[in-house]
Structures are given as C-alpha cells and as structure tokens.
Write a structure and sequence with these properties.
single chain; mainly beta; Jelly Rolls; eight-stranded antiparallel sheet; five-stranded antiparallel sheet; 1 helix
C-alpha cells in the first residue's frame, strides 16, 4: 500500500468525518416528534415527502432504521442524530421493508406481491453493501416481518388486506424458505374492536386494512402487533395479540389499541416496529399521518414502550409530540423521559412578511400539521414573528416546514433550509437563538434544543433559503415554561357509553380556568390507565376506539404552559350508560 501524502490524508479524514456526521448536535439530550429526518421527496407527482412502515433494529450497539420510500436507510449511535446510508443493492422502492438480526448478520426483505422475492444480507450495514441470501423466496406478500426466537428458529409474518387475515409460517434458517404451510393468526373484528374502524376518529366504520405485523418476545410471551384501520387516518394505530408460541394461537390483549395517537400536532402511531435500545429500553417507532398532498404523505414518530408487572404491553403516546429525553440508562416509567417543557406557542398571535390566501398566518400556531402558513415567496427575508404574550422560559423550538409549491423529486444535495431564529423581550431588540444561515443539511422538522434556556416573549424566524417553492411553516412550536401557575385538577366529569355501540363513549368535564388542554387517560383497571387521548381548547370528547367487550376506567389531566396536573378522580365505565 502506498503511503498517503499529508494533504491527501487530510482530505480522506475530512471526507470520513462529513459522511459520519449526524444531523443534530451531539450534546442534544431530547427529541420531538415527528422525527427530524431527511424524509425523501417521492419520485412521482405531487411533490411531497414520505417515510412510513419503519423497521428499527439495534445492531452492534448502534441503530439502523429502514422505512418505505426513503432512498436509503438511516443510522444513529444515540437515537438523536441520524445519517443516511445509500445503496444500490436493495429494492428501496418496495414498501414496508423488514430487517432482522440473525447470527451477527442483518437480513432484509420488502413487500412484493408476485414471487419470487429476494432476501438480502450484510454483516456491515454501514458499508451499504448487501448480498443475496435467498434469490427465490416463494411467497408473494405485503408487509413482511422476520422474527428470530431465542432458540434460533426463524418465523415470518405477513399480510395487508381489508379482507384477508395476517399469516405466519416458520422458515428454514439455512435456505430461508418456508417450513410447512402458513397459518392465519389475526383477523379483523370491527364490530367489537372500535380501533379497527376506518375514519380519522374511527367514525366511518368501513373494513379496516389489517397490516404491518411485528413480533416481540418478552418474558416467554409472544406479542404479535398489527396496524389498522388505514395509513391515511389520524386513528392509525397498532393492536396486539399474545400467545405462548410464535405461531399461536393468539389471544387479544386486554389493553388495546396499545399504540394510538389520534390528536395533537402530528397524529397516528401505526404500522410500527418495536425494538430495544442498548440500555434495554423498549421503543415503538411508528408511521404518522399527514395525507394531504397524497394519501401516503407520512412521517415517523418514536414512542417509549413498556411491559408492566402483569406483562401488559403499552406504547406511551401521552404528550407524544412534546420534547422528551433520550435515556442513557434503563428506565421503568415514562415520567423519567419528560423534561417538564410545555407548549408555549398554541394559538399565539403572529405577524408575517406576507401570506397566501389559503394559508393564513394562524396556521403556523394551530397545532395541526395538516395545515400551514405560507409566505407569498420563498425569497430571502420572508419572516414570521410570534408573541408569546408573556415573558417565558424557552428551552426548545421545533420548525416544521411545509412543501408548498415545490416540484422536487427524489434526493438532491441542494435540498436544505437556511434561516435565522431570534428572540426578544420587547419586539424591537433581537438576540440570536439559532443561526442556520449557513446550514446545508436537510432538516424539514428542525428541532433546536437550546444549550441554556432563555427568557423571552417574542420569537422571530427569518428565511434565508428554501430548496424550492415558498417559505411555508406547518408549525412553529415553542417549548418551555410559562410565567404563571399550572391549572387546577379536573374533579368532575361525566361518561356515557353508547347503548347502541359499546365501542363509543361520550365525555364531558368542567372547564378548568387557565387550562390550555386536557389529556384523557383510560385503561382496563385503575392502575393501568395506559391510553392517552389529548385535546386542546375543548371540554368534551367522543372516543370511538373502545373494545365493546371490555370494562374501562377514566381520569382527566389538565395542562397549560406552566405544567400538568394529573387527575385523581377515576370513574369506572362498565355499563352501556353511566
């Protein structure tokens, strides 16, 4: 090998550093959903970004994320900063990739309706080099999942249909072909399982798409997860069945849906994978919906997941698009992840440099990713300014760009945003929060965790560059602590279960002065209130996602810019009316 000259050696080392550099700062301790990834622009019209159907695995102490239509796969050492690995060896245009670790090797396959399929493998995923492990897998299918049991046996789950069930079969670990015939393991029951009914709020009731199987083993039990009712709905979530054997028979778990987020800035928590981080914590990475420019306009969200002492599995989605800590140790409760930062920007008054008629300025603060404010142009100097109305402690800001008027297709090196983020106490004298005027990384949901909190009342975001289209913001979200008091407790509320449909419950409660929103917690017993349903600006709600055969218990938390006050009054919902 020839000796490298010093200039050439410097260039090689610099190149390696740039390739491995994560998008986010290494001293960042929190993240905020949707995940701040370089979501690819789809190759077809209309111009929009997409990533969905994620598979995350921990391999040799690091994390690899595969998602539909991403033009590559993502790599991280800490679940905070991500870099993209590109490859020509994998069918990255096929939906719902799955990956499994077996014998220090990663195995990959993706959806394909017509056999034969190809299974790929690599021992070095950072290299982007993969080889064929099985050139002729005989089952055509959608939404595959590969699962290796503790005894080394390999199982395959698949299915995506509003008619047919999810199937499972064992595979030979050497040939990677099926052993025996597939068995049906999960079918829909929308009559009794409200979360399987279609619609943003499970109100339409058409046959659900039962899909996205994923297997997790914990303490000798097999937890088979599945998605429904459809990726375009806010109600997109995951249910779970439990068995003593990887091929069943499976019994519906009492806690369902175990992953569900129908409200908030970004909604949906379906078609997911569950994995353990290097500290042993479980996580559920899910598909989140926008579905405005196209049904498959989607993002990804990460949620902590737990098993209680009785083996009940649940993904914690409460305040699931607020900042949360990424732990550096094993944890046992979701409270350990909450930094205490509240949403300061909801419906706050804004001023803008310009606006388009159908995208007014208030859409930047209405906590709905499906709507957005847009300036008239994408030129340097367009801006938006927010008044928090009181001086507050600011800890973090999330800037969610919208693709308005873009014509971008695929991935290009010039897809990035540049901006200046400032704060002020009087609206006249401005101080820098983040100077990204020289940024050259693609961060469509840029999340800035401040090194130190600041006191401020006004926030200003000034555009320096967008890759195409206009300067458009779906959410300028500010997190920290206000200067007032947390609301009082919700002590009085009423439940009424529908006599005609036991999947439906109406709730109403006494409006709490100063409360910005409420988080309804409910579950199968008083000590298992694992479901979360968060609302803003209302004191009534209809939930249509219950199990008609299940008894429930409810309580309501109140929150505002100064904190959360948990409900102590728990009501049992057992009869058709209460």
């Amino acid at each position: 090998m020839k000796q490298l000259t010093k200039p050439l050696l410097f260039i090689v080392l610099l190149t390696c550093t740039l390739v491995a550099r994560p998008q986010n700062k290494p001293n960042q301790a929190t993240i905020c959903n949707p995940m701040n990834l370089s979501y690819r622009f789809c190759p077809d019209a209309p111009s929009r970004r997409e990533a969905a159907d994620p598979t995350m695995v921990t391999f040799k102490g690091e994390y690899y994320l595969f998602a539909s239509k991403s033009g590559g796969y993502f790599h991280s050492t800490d679940l905070i900063g991500w870099d993209l690995i590109t490859t020509r060896d994998l069918p990255l245009e096929d939906y719902a990739p799955t990956v499994v670790v077996m014998n220090d090797t990663l195995y990959f396959m993706a959806s394909k309706n017509d056999p034969p399929l190809i299974i790929y493998k690599t021992a070095y995923p950072k290299s982007g080099k993969w080889e064929i492990a099985n050139p002729s897998f005989p089952i055509g299918m959608t939404d595959p999942d590969l699962f290796v049991d503790n005894d080394g046996r390999l199982y395959f789950y698949y299915g995506c249909s509003n008619v047919n069930p999810i199937y499972a079969v064992e595979l030979n670990t050497k040939t990677l072909n099926p052993i025996g015939k597939s068995v049906a393991v999960i079918s829909s029951d929308k009559k009794n399982y409200g979360w399987e009914r279609s619609g943003d709020y499970n109100e339409v009731g058409k046959n659900p798409w039962i899909e996205g199987a994923w297997m997790t083993k914990h303490n000798g039990k097999y937890y088979l997860q599945y998605a429904g009712p459809g990726t375009e709905f806010k109600s997109y979530g995951d249910g779970v069945y439990v068995a003593d054997h990887p091929l069943g028979p499976f019994t519906l778990a009492a806690h369902n849906p175990f992953s569900y987020k129908p409200e908030g800035f970004v909604t949906g928590a379906g078609h997911s994978s569950t994995f353990q981080d290097k500290y042993g914590n479980y996580w559920h990475i899910s598909t989140m919906t926008i579905s405005q420019k196209h049904m498959f306009e989607r993002r990804l969200g990460l949620f902590p997941t737990f098993f209680d002492d009785d083996g009940v599995m649940y993904a914690y989605t409460g305040f699931g698009d607020f900042p949360f800590n990424i732990p550096t140790k094993n944890i046992s409760d979701p409270c350990e992840l909450f930094p205490g930062w509240m949403l300061l920007s909801y419906n706050k008054p804004v001023e803008v440099s310009s606006e388009l008629p159908n995208h007014p300025k208030n859409f930047a603060t209405n906590e709905d990713i499906r709507t957005y404010w847009s300036a008239k142009t994408g030129e340097k100097g367009e801006w938006i300014s927010m008044d928090l109305q009181k001086q507050s402690t600011i800890n973090a800001i999330q800037i969610n760009y919208a693709e308005n008027g873009t014509s971008i297709r695929g991935r290009h090196p010039d897809i990035f945003y540049q901006y200046l983020l400032e704060y002020s106490n009087d609206g006249k004298t401005w101080n820098t929060l983040a100077d990204k005027t020289g940024n050259q990384t693609d961060v469509p949901h840029d999340y800035i965790e401040l090194p130190k909190p600041v006191k401020g009342r006004f926030i200003k975001l000034t555009n320096y560059r967008v890759p195409d289209g206009t300067f458009a913001i779906a959410g300028l979200r500010v997190f920290g602590i206000g200067s007032g008091k947390a609301p009082s407790e919700v002590k009085y509320f009423r439940l009424k279960r529908s006599e005609a449909d036991r999947c439906v419950v109406d709730l109403s409660w006494t409006k709490i002065p100063g409360a910005v929103g409420y988080n309804i917690r409910y579950g199968t017993s008083k000590d298992k209130l694992f479901q979360n349903y968060q609302v803003l600006g209302t004191n009534s709600l209809t939930i249509r996602s219950l199990n008609a055969l299940q008894r429930y218990y409810f309580t309501i938390d109140a929150f505002n810019e100064n904190g959360i006050v948990k409900g102590k009054h728990i009501i049992e919902l057992s009869e058709p009316s209460y």
